[in-house]
Amino acid sequence: MNEEPTPPKTNADRAEKAGEDKLPRPRPGLDPASTPLKGPKRARAQKAKLARAEAAKPKAPATEQTVDAKAPETDAAPKAAPAAREAEPVPPPAQPARIRKRHYAVLLSFILVVLTPVLAGGFYLWVVAADQYASKVGFSVRKEEMSSAVELLGGITELSGSSSSDTDILYEFIQSQKLVDTLNRSLNLAEIWSRPEYDPVFAYQGGTIEDLVMYWGRMVRVNYDTMSGLIEVRVLAFDPEDATRIADGIFAESSNMINELSAIAREDAVSYAREELDRSLERLKETRAAVTRFRNQYQMVDPTSDLQAQASLLGSLQAQLAETLIELDFLEEITRPNDPRLAQAKRRVEVIENRIADERQKRGLVNEDTSGNERFSTLVGEYEGLIVEREFAEQSYVSALATSDAAKAEARRKSRYLAAYMKPTRAERAEYPRRGLTLSLFALFITLIWGIGVLITYSLRDRR
């Protein structure tokens, strides 16, 4: 007959017995101390550890039972609970952190990839890099419109304003190859920017005009405020005098370019008026030449005046001829045929008729085909046509001349010029390169690159 286990006599014995029953039983063939637990197993092990701690706590004394028969049932309850649930294996205690080979590799990579380049960059910036001096110049394109007398009387005036299109053109011109080439020929920019031969990073290393234009973009900064139309140029050089000279050259060439634009605008404004004036002048010359040819051909300055003079002369001769004929008729009636007065009167009539014929023949007004009156009227009509054309050409020329003068005056009233609100400055201390900022940005960038590389390396290592 099997003996039943003796129940614990006291509550403390019962708690100790329950704690022993709750201890996890190791599986056969497994050493809990050498089995690593990961993921869900570690969570279950922690829960088991908490359960053991709760079980090890002393419980309050139970109420005394008056009936002895009920004691076995009470004692059997704590025994059934440990048997009902299976305990998890006990996780091993956490081992202290140790420095391994991969940690040394990370430290070595940090020294090689980050620390060494940063120290080298700092040495270069503070020991090798040459100082750079900045010169600044600021200007704006102004468009001045001087009001005419009529506008001043009417109260319509517009003194000045900025031209955004001209400013845009100037902004692009300052960064153009044309300006770089012009200043390089006058100031020798390649020599100015390549003087610190020991500085391979910030000094100009020589090359083609395209290389010089790229280096120009590094040393010359142009700030353009589109709202106000102001342009500010910052020029860097390794000598303050060189920086000021380059800034002066930029301002001078920019002013020349604006003057050229203003001249082109004036030329466009007066070109049409000038063309009209030239055409009117040519037409006037042609009409005057035609009048001159007419006068040389017919040997008369003004046919109208000649007509009046001839009419007066012929009229006088005709009157004298009429009087002489009347006198001749009267003498024929009262005298005998052999009267000497009659012969004298006939001679006078003949002389007057010959004079009239000579006057007409001298002017070329008679020929075999046309009569004198018809020929003279044709000449007068031709001359009057030439005079009308000449007067019209003169009026056209006067009008074109007035238009040309007005266009020139209008072009002069609208002029563009470059106004400098800040003359080229001369630096007294070197502001560039900004060593602290440059080194900080370099260190931040290279640290980010190193950190990303380390993260990628560990990610690939964990996937193996």
UniProtKB/TrEMBL annotation:
Superkingdom: Bacteria
Compositional bias (Basic residues): 39-50
Transmembrane segments: 104-127, 439-460
Disordered: region residues: 1-95
One GO location term (cellular component): plasma membrane
Coiled-coil ranges (or none): 277-362
Residue spans of biased composition, Basic and acidic residues class: 11-24
Keyword vocabulary terms for this entry: Coiled coil, Membrane, Transmembrane, Transmembrane helix
Name recorded for this polypeptide: Capsular polysaccharide transport system permease protein
Species the sequence originates in: Poseidonocella pacifica
Highest classification ranks of the organism: Bacteria, Pseudomonadati, Pseudomonadota, Alphaproteobacteria, Rhodobacterales
